[in-house]
TrEMBL record:
Highest rank taxon of the organism: Bacteria
Lyase as UniProt keyword: yes
Species assigned in the record: Pseudorhizobium endolithicum
NCBIfam families: PRK00823.1-3 (NF002018)
The protein's name in its UniProt record: Putative pterin-4-alpha-carbinolamine dehydratase
């Protein structure tokens, strides 16, 4: 059963629990730029998140340059946000704290 597209109100509620993420202008994605001390830490973060994404069957759109990883989360099959995006965002926040 694929998750339902979240309403703007539900998205607002979810974002209140995720201080470091911002809602994209079109309201269909959330964004965070992670900063690490080294490239190795950034890549280790990506490797850990890749395994989480596979487990959730929900995958990020991300860009890495050196110690920075920019992440955009959206649910392609509803062209918007679902609980899967916020579940992955929380997992990524946890992984980033471990990588510090
Ligand atoms: C077939 C497979 O379940 C789908 O392609 C999954 C895979 N990962 C996904 N990731 C994201 N971000 N959005 C999706 O809609 C999505 N769908």
């Amino acid at each position: 059963m694929s998750p339902e597209k979240l309403s703007p109100q539900a998205i607002e509620g979810e974002l209140e629990t995720l201080q470091d993420w911002t809602l994209r202008e079109d309201g269909a994605a959330i964004f965070r730029s992670f900063r690490f001390r080294t490239f190795s830490q950034a890549f280790g973060f990506m490797a850990e998140c890749a395994l989480v994404a596979e487990r959730l069957n929900h995958h990020p759109e991300w860009f890495n340059v050196y110690s920075r990883v920019d992440v955009t989360l959206t649910t392609h099959h509803v062209s918007g946000l679902t609980v899967q995006d916020f579940k992955l965002a929380r997992a990524m926040d946890r992984a980033a704290r471990r990588g510090d």
